[in-house]
Amino acid sequence: MKKQKIAFFDTKPYDREFFEKINERYGFEISFFSPRLKTETAPLAAGYETVCVFVNDTVTPKIIDRLYEGGTRLLALRSAGYNNVDLKYAYNKLRVVRVPAYSPFAVAEHAVALMLTLNRKTHRAFIRTRENNFSINGLMGFDMHQKTAGIVGTGRIGKIAIEILRGFGMNIVAFDPYPDNEFAKKHDIKYVDIDKLFRQSDIISLHSPLTPDNVHMINSSSIAKMKDGVMIINTGRGKLINTKDLINGIKSKKIGSAGLDVYEEETDYFFEDFSADAISDDVLARLTTFPNVLITSHQAFFTKEALTNIAETTLENIRLAYEESRFPNEICYRCT
Predict the structure, then answer these.
(1) Same domain, 160 and 271
(2) Contact 198/222 with Cβ under 8 angstroms?
(3) Which of 36, 66, 95, 237 is catalytic?
(4) Are residues 200 and 215 in the same domain?
(5) Does the active-site annotation cover 207?
(6) What percentage of the chain exceeds 90 in pLDDT?
(7) pLDDT, tens digit (0-9, with 9 covering 90-100), for 222-236
(8) C-alpha distances in angstroms, 35 versus 39, 165, 179, 333?
(9) Would you state the pLDDT for residue 333?
(10) Are residue 242 and residue 116 in the same domain, yes or no?
(11) Are 200 and 150 in contact (CB under 8 A)?
């Protein structure tokens, strides 16, 4: 059988390392391209049956047409999210597959790491001691034991976060359109409506996919319902939060701290090095000025286990598509 040719876009050294290792079992002909998939770079995919993209590759109708004209028939996402692809336009042109799960432990653990860092201010303490400043003024935190965590979204990641926080002795309230009552009973958590979660929680952690119904679910109205000094954590999707409203909440001290691994306008910045440049995004630049805001660059997934799972699932998706005409992880636009 002819070797399948795959064009990878928006690749970093770690992508090459993990995919090349797993590809030893598959033998695909892979070309790694550093640029993101854009209108200008789409011609690079000509002659490749499969194109593999990441979360910041925006696959528009124009790009879909370019890929289709160049012979591409399969679009493989090496991510769980797919709101960067125009699925409806891709129908009857490209089959679209994804990695629905890789390591929920990685994301849940990162969310808890953000909580602990913000609470005990270890990021600030690190900077102080590096400068021989051993004062602990301003570094006071709180016991997480017996505080209430509100978990928005109880899929695999949300459930693991709940299990970790229950280990700290926290009380858990949760919101999900499809509650798992058996899980709730087993772990002694309570499902509540979203407004009650906002009112009761000392820490709110977002683990929801992005849907038309929850865009900007954290906004000025929902923030007003929260406890004074609430901590907000987002390792889900950037557009779950209206960032300007978040900033106003931080300035008014309604929000005590925020840990963000995602940002609604992250595409132009996250995963890239701008250390020698000024940030032209005024909202992101403002966020970085707050000592009680911790931003990580969409790295919650970034563990050895997760990258291995992503590479394995992506290449298996491609093998199944071409060798068995099966698409177990296909995204159907009618179902989204």
Answers:
(1) yes
(2) yes
(3) 237
(4) yes
(5) no
(6) 90
(7) 999 999 999 999 999
(8) 11, 39, 41, 27
(9) 66
(10) yes
(11) yes
Give yes or no: 237 in active site. Answer: yes
Name the burial class of residue 323, with classes exposed (0-12), middle (13-18) and buried (19+) by CB atoms within 10 angstroms of its CB: exposed
Q: How far apart are CA 318 and CA 336, in angstroms?
A: 22
Would you state the pLDDT for residue 335?
53
Helix, strand, or coil (residue 278): coil
**Model-wide pTM > 0.90:** yes
Residue from 66, 98, 110, 298 carrying the catalytic annotation: 298
- Token pair for 8: 């990878």
For the chain, which ranges sit under pLDDT 50?
A: none
CATH number at residue 285: 3.40.50.720
Distances (CA, A) of 317 to 5, 102, 111, 314: 14, 13, 29, 5
Say whether 216 is catalytic.
no
Same-domain pairing of 314 and 245: no
- Is there a single domain that holds both residue 253 and residue 321? no
Which structural domain, as residue segments, surrounds residue 20? Answer: 5-102+303-335
The pLDDT of residue 83 is 85
Q: Are residues 127 and 32 in the same domain?
A: no
Which backbone phi and psi does 88 adopt, to 5 degrees?
Answer: -65, -40
How far is it, in rounded angstroms, from Cα 202 to Cα 200? 7
According to the model, what pLDDT value does residue 332 have?
79
DSSP state of 59: B
Segment (H or E) for 181: helix 181-187
Same domain (yes/no): 158, 215 = yes
User: Could you give the number of structural domains in the chain?
Assistant: 2
Among 43, 81, 50, 48, residue whose Cα is nearest residue 65: 43
Integer Cα distance of 301 and 235 in angstroms: 9
Are residues 145 and 114 located together in one domain of the fold? yes
Spatial separation of the C-alpha atoms in residues 179 and 154, rounded to whole Å? 7
Answer for the pair 118, 274: CB distance below 8 angstroms, yes or no. no
Give the integer Cα–Cα distance in Å for 43 and 20. Answer: 23
Q: What is the per-residue pLDDT for 101?
A: 86
